[in-house]
Amino acid sequence: MPLISSKKELIFPLAIFVFFIAIVFALWNNSLNTQKSSYVREIQNTGSLRAKEFFSLVEYNIKSLENLKQRIEMTNGSYFDYWERDATLIMAQNSSFRFVEWLDSSMVIQKVIPIEENKAAIGLDLTTHPRYPEWKKHISDSITNISPWTKLYQGGSAFLVDAPVYLNGRFMGSVTAGMDFTAPFNELAADLDKYAIQVEDEKGTIFYSKNNPRTNEIGKEFIFTTSFEVDVLDGQTWKFSLMPAELNFLAERKQSTYIYLAFGLLLSLLTSSLVYFYRSSRKKNKNLHDANLKLKDLNTSLKKEQLRAEKASRSKTEFISNMSHEIRTPLNAIIGFIEVLKLSEIQSSLQEYLSLMDISSKKLLLLVNDILEIDKIESGKTTFRNDIFSPLDELKNIIRIYRRTAEEKCLYIDLNQVSQSQVEAFGDIGKYGQIITNILRNSLKFTETGGITISYEEHVVDNYLSIAISIKDSGIGIPKDKLNTIFDRFTQVEVGKAKRHEGSGLGLYITSKLVELLEGKIDVTSQENIGTEFHLSLKFPVSDSSGSVNSKGQESIDLSGCRVLIVDDNRVNVIVLQKTLENLGVHSDSVSNGVEAIEAVKKSDYLLVFMDVHMPKMDGFKATKEIRKFNETIGIIGLSADVTKEAIDEAKGVGMNDYFTKPISFDKLRKHLPNYLIKIS
């Protein structure tokens, strides 16, 4: 009897176990399908976004060539004398351009830029070339022609893009460019290591690929494919395909489902055991059952909290990026009023408060700039100017600026320079200065006694200026466990409520990213309570220019009597700018929108217009276009809190002479105004 009873007790728990196993396998199979569907959606979304980026880049490059053609036509051929210079500039700005050439009306190549590697193409008659009929067809329709991937006479292959030029209705020839999109496509796909990409022309020729695409070995549902019509007249389309780079692309995702399967099997076994013990001992089994229910609730809550935390993290990133931009507008007024008050006669008892306000507002601006800099770096929108400057002179200027801060803390800043040549080079002086400034500010912040020793060395190798800079301080040092994370964002040496030094943890992160973009190197060595030393290596092309600049000081230029117009719908911004201009002796009038600005320029003889970008009725870009229709000489400076490259490019494109981002400092105005204002007798 006891044996029979024991078997009966096992039947029900065993049935429960089988039931749960069936559910677990069903859920596991559903999870696999969900993972697969999720990955397919991820591929489709990624492919759609990246295809738009790829094809937008193609359109942008074609538009650059068409703009060159339009300038020749708009000037009725006068601009033809300068097209080679413009073509050289386009090639410098667009890495997809291999050459730009001029084909006359008989389809003979007359000129080509650059000439050295393309001499073989000069004088080449293309009337017998296979693409001649296509070229002729586009001439009759005045539409830009794009060839298939073509083998070049001078070697290599490229797409040939022809923009026909007409003067007074007569066909004169075409501006033709050889384009190879490999380099810019590689930049767009730099962060897509887990995907393979291929792009083919209308003939099925694959002219770009990344990570060895294997379309025949991967299921069609895991391949995103879309087409882009590059030549409407000929119906030419390119096909973009994105797929996983590895054949076992679902292995990692399946691994987690196997863990869940094992957990489910274990849970089924435990559940059936609980049922068995429940039938054996109701009291003990009840306690175990209650504990199991609580565990399930806890797992559900943990999953919800995890999803909520991930969503909050994404929202935080978007919020920081948007708010950092919005903060600049009111910050413009704060810093502007501080500048005005600093230049006015104010009670000595209030000077200390004003100084504290100045320091605090600039710290806030620095933080906002850091956040925007991170957004540009991580979104791949960082741009670099091509200034001519002396790295050694710029280093000395930065040291001169921060020496007063060091002296206030009773610290020294010494410079040991191995070279005295002060070679000038091409590069972005702003980014270079930002790197040095971030490191130097970091050293000053964490140094209480002693000081900072800066060593500078430069050598010219193969027409490049190689510089090596070390910045060594006697500060608190960096713990060994944090040395490897010092260049991570939001990372600080001190943490917790008792930390003594302020900071956002962004400066060194931005510094390392800028050094990386400049193809340089930076590393750090440190010992706690002894000090820290940063080692920086950078390389810039040597400049042949003497780099001499007008030595006339801005202080000596008299701007009194000059009249300018301020166009801004924000009354506070107008007051700040007017007060600042008054301190320079400049008289200003103001209007609140683009329509009023056009009328004011027509009625009065202004030398300069400060044009806000975002305004009601008519924005600053549209107003500038209208003003340029009847006045090409007046200076127009754009004003905006938008610091993106797109906004700056648009400002220059509509005819603005310059573009100032808010807030605008008194020193910046004093430096730039003499370029636009003259002394009125």
How does this model look, in words?
- Strand 14 and strand 15 (464-473) form a beta hairpin.
- The strands form five sheets. Strands 1, 2, 3, 4, 5 and 6 form a six-stranded antiparallel beta sheet that branches. The chain has a five-stranded mixed beta sheet with strand order 12-14-15-17-16, with helices on one face.
- It has helices at residues 2-74, 83-93, 132-141, 182-188, 251-280, 282-342, 348-378, 391-408, 429-445, 480-483, 507-517, 571-583, 594-603, 620-630, 645-654, 666-672; strands spanning 97-104, 109-113, 145-146, 150-151, 157-167, 170-179, 195-200, 206-210, 224-231, 236-244, 387-389, 412-417, 425-427, 451-461, 464-473, 521-527, 531-541, 563-567, 587-591, 608-612, 635-640, 658-661.
- It folds into three domains: 37-249, 2-Layer Sandwich (Beta-Lactamase); 387-541, Heat Shock Protein 90; 554-675, Response regulator (Rossmann fold).
- The longest helix is centred in the first third of the chain and has 73 residues, at 2-74.
- It contains 16 helices and 22 strands.
- The model is unreliable at 493-504 and 546-555 (pLDDT under 50).
- Helix 1 (2-74) runs antiparallel to helix 5, helix 5 packs across helix 6 and helix 9 (429-445) runs antiparallel to helix 11.
- Residues 563-677 form the Response regulatory domain.
- Residues 288-315 form a coiled coil.
- This is histidine kinase.
